[in-house]
Write a structure and sequence with these properties.
The structure holds two protein chains of two kinds.
Chain A (H helix, E strand, L loop, with lengths): L9 H9 L2 H23 L4 H17 L1 H14 L3 E5 L2 H15 L3 E4 L3 H5 L2 H7 L3 E4 L2 H9 L15 H11 L8 H18 L2 E4 L3 E3 L4 E6 L3 H7 L3 E7 L3 E2 L5 H12 L7 E5 L13 E7 L10 H4 L9 H5 L1 H6 L10 H11 L17 H5 L6 H14 L5 H20 L2 H24 L3 H5 L12 H8 L3
Parallel strand pairs in A: 1-10, 2-3, 2-4, 4-7, 5-8, 7-10
Antiparallel strand pairs in A: 5-6, 6-9
Helix pairs in contact in A: 3-12, 16-18
Chain B lengths: L2 H13 L23 H14 L3 E4 L6 H11 L4 E3 L3 H7 L16 H6 L2 E5 L2 E3 L4 E5 L14 E6 L4 E2 L2 H7 L7 E5 L4 E2 L7 E2 L6 E6 L1
Parallel strand pairs in B: 1-11, 2-3, 3-6, 4-7, 6-11
Antiparallel strand pairs in B: 4-5, 5-8, 9-10
The chains are: A alpha/beta, B alpha/beta.
The structure holds iron/sulfur cluster.
The site of iron/sulfur cluster has 14 residues of chain A, from helix 14.
């Protein structure tokens, strides 16, 4: 069972991850390839900006009228024979899914990749109840065999080398120690097929839920989603309430953006558009279809424009691939289900802010995530918003004290900078102090604290003003 | 209050909306793909895209795909063949020259379908811009025959070739069938060090026969 690292200790997790050169190199190489593919596809798509704007407008509209579309979705899904459940939080969701697994799982459930089931920690609950839950996406299965949580939201085992996976399989699956990717994949196919054939319940997520038809749309490359949603007698999908789209026609733009941003593909190999269970006993597919709509902290993001945009995310993973912080520290250091830039903004809104207080600072604010995001989420702005929220803290907490000190410092700086002579005097003093005691000052607070993870530049011997005067005006 | 009402109340509360408040029409989605392709160009583009994702294109317009399928069956020598109930597929299965193969019934058991060596279905539409097949469960039982065997042959009527995704979404019958499957190439994964491996959970080979 994969355990998350403590997210409160992001700095320590990150430092530890930086020591892991094998992981860092594997991750960076893979993330760069994905980003390269994304860039190539986007650069040959003249209408890319139009698509992004269209998608964002549709998302914003849907979120602003989310209650309307949720009710419409529910009505149409029920009309087609699906059973719709509502889960206010993770505990609700787990209870509903456990009931189903007990009733129809025959002790074994097959799962296709779903970050939402990770979010509610479903696997742990199923294991506790003595029900085997098998991840069937290859990357996700690798992580499950290794006893690890996913490292990336699209490519769960992105940080592992083939050699590491071959060793893992040798131990757990019984393949030869130096197997190549094709042999390992074939072994996975064989093992997992046996699971598909016996499982009574298939558990999936969904990329989109269509209000006008009550349908779910799921994208994939491997075929395990198709198996999960067609072979077992019962299918259940856990779907965040933000996944709703008004119309089938909206899929046009989202199916163009998501694969291109995620893997650089024009379209993933398979899309399953699922509307209710089978209608006749002789049809193919599950006899029961359940849809669990999950809130778990999403509704409260709707109130403000800045936080609402977090719900526009289509989980493409592009912001992870391009993020200089994620590329170095990897997915586990964040200690949360959603890592990388999107994780740094979503997690603090899903869990108590005090727990995730480190995450909004896990960014250099370079803005690469905003530039690649297919739905134009302004992640840096969200990070700043959340940083401010962390700084505000709650009254009486140390944050308030820090805020007082910070405010005094800033006021003083503003006072000095607004007075040229005072500024010249102060900067001269600072240069002298730096030259005489620089190394010592850096070891004392408050600089010593700031210096963790940063290099303090030494001040130049002659400042700009002096140089300017010496050269004379042009 | 149950979870449903709690969630809806929270959503409305944060949005400042009241129960039952209507929504204005959603913003329009403009036409996003190319539409100005004639039949020949569509077929050319479809073929290029299909081959680019590892599929194979065959032209079988003279005889409903009979010759092509006969050759493919000779090549793969399947012991059993899963098939959909599409009329074009039934016609092949019942043809004198193909009858000797191990055809399963379209309603074969899951165990038989899991063990089948090859699957034949039709496709109701295809999308030129991405090389994608669109299969409609209402019109044929395609879910297992196109997924479980390691080789999938699909018979695509030439007239059903559409230019782009938006057109395909518009063409889907309403009410929607219980399942519509979009297929672009063989099943693939790159989860192990980004090395492309085909045939992970679904077919490793996809042959599209245009009829
Ligand atoms: S925030 Fe944007 S780039 Fe990141 S995963 Fe979500 S949609 Fe993709």
């Amino acid at each position: 069972m994969g355990e998350h690292l403590p997210m409160e200790q992001f700095p320590a997790n990150a430092r530890a991850a930086l020591q892991n050169d094998v992981q860092r190199h594997a991750l960076r190489a893979a993330a760069n390839v994905f980003d390269e593919r994304r860039r190539t596809t986007v650069s040959t798509t003249p209408d890319w900006q139009l698509w992004r704007e269209t998608a964002r407008a549709v998302k914003e509209h849907t979120l602003l009228h989310l209650d309307h579309y949720l009710v419409e979705f529910e009505r149409n899904a029920i009309a087609r024979g699906a059973q719709v459940h509502w889960a206010a939080d993770a505990a609700d969701a787990v209870r509903i899914l456990l009931d189903l697994a007990r009733r129809c799982g025959f002790g074994i459930c097959v799962k296709s990749k779903s970050m939402t089931t990770e979010e509610v920690r479903l696997n742990e609950a199923l294991e506790h109840a003595g029900i085997e839950a098998v991840e069937t996406d290859l990357g996700e299965w690798i992580q499950q065999l290794a006893g690890e949580v996913p490292f990336h939201i699209v490519v769960p085992a992105i940080h592992k080398t083939r050699g590491q996976i071959a060793e893992l399989f040798a131990e757990k699956v019984g393949t030869p120690k130096d197997s190549d990717a094709a042999t390992l994949t074939a072994a996975a196919r064989e093992k997992l097929r046996a699971k598909f054939a016996t499982a009574g319940l298939g558990i999936s997520g969904a990329n989109f839920a269509i209000a006008e038809t009550g349908s779910l749309l799921i994208l994939e490359n491997e075929g395990n989603v198709r198996l999960t949603t067609s072979v077992p007698k019962v299918h259940v999908a856990l779907v965040g309430i933000e996944k709703v789209l008004p119309r089938v026609a909206d899929l046009d733009v989202f199916l163009r953006l998501l694969p291109r941003s995620g893997t650089g593909q024009a379209l993933t190999t398979y899309q399953s558009l699922l509307t209710g269970p089978k209608q006749k006993g002789t049809d193919e597919g599950p006899g029961e279809m359940h849809i669990v709509l999950l809130d778990n902290g999403r509704a409260k993001m709707l109130g403000e424009e800045v936080t609402r945009q977090s719900l526009a995310c289509i989980r493409c993973g592009a912001c992870l691939n391009v993020c200089p912080v994620y590329q170095q520290v990897g997915g586990h250091a964040y200690g949360s289900v959603y890592p990388g830039p999107i994780g740094a903004v979503v997690t603090p809104q899903l869990v108590p802010l005090a727990r995730a207080a480190q995450l909004p600072f896990a960014s250099s604010l370079c803005g690469a995530c905003r530039d690649v995001c297919p739905v134009k989420i302004d992640i840096p702005r969200l990070l700043l918003h959340l940083r401010a929220a962390v700084r505000e803290g709650s009254p009486g907490k140390p944050a308030a004290q820090a805020r007082f000190f910070e405010r005094c410092t800033m006021r003083l700086a503003a006072f000095v900078m607004a007075r040229p002579r005072l500024y010249r005097f102060a900067s001269g003093g600072a240069r002298l102090a730096d030259r005489l005691f620089g190394p010592l000052l850096q070891r004392l607070p408050p600089l010593s604290k700031w210096r963790k993870g940063r290099t303090v530049p030494r001040l130049a011997h002659r400042n700009f003003r002096t140089l300017w005067q010496q050269r004379g005006k042009p | 209050m149950n979870a449903r009402d709690r969630i809806l109340q929270a959503v409305r509360g944060h949005l400042g909306r009241t129960d039952g408040a209507a929504a204005p029409p959603p913003p329009p989605v403009p036409l996003l793909g190319r539409v100005d392709l004639d039949a020949g160009e569509k077929l050319k583009q479809f073929g290029e895209r299909l081959v680019a994702v590892g599929g194979h294109l065959h032209i079988g317009m003279q005889d409903g795909g009979l010759t092509v399928v006969r050759e493919l069956l000779a090549r793969y020598a399947p012991l059993t063949i899963a098939r959909s109930d599409a009329p074009t597929v039934t016609a092949l299965c019942e043809h004198d020259s193909l009858r000797q193969h191990g055809w399963l019934s379209p309603a074969a058991s899951k165990a038989e379908l899991f063990a089948a060596d090859l699957g034949i279905t039709a496709a109701q539409w295809a999308i030129a811009e991405t090389g994608t097949l669109v299969l409609d469960m209402q019109q044929e039982r395609h879910r297992f025959a196109s997924l479980l065997p390691p080789v999938h042959i699909a018979l695509l009527p030439h007239a059903r070739l559409l230019a782009n995704l938006g057109e395909a979404l518009k063409t889907l019958p309403r009410p929607l069938p219980p399942t519509v499957t979009f297929v672009t190439g063989p099943s693939r994964t790159a989860d192990i060090e980004l090395q492309l491996v085909v045939g992970v959970h679904g077919p490793r080979e996809l042959h599209v026969v245009v009829i």
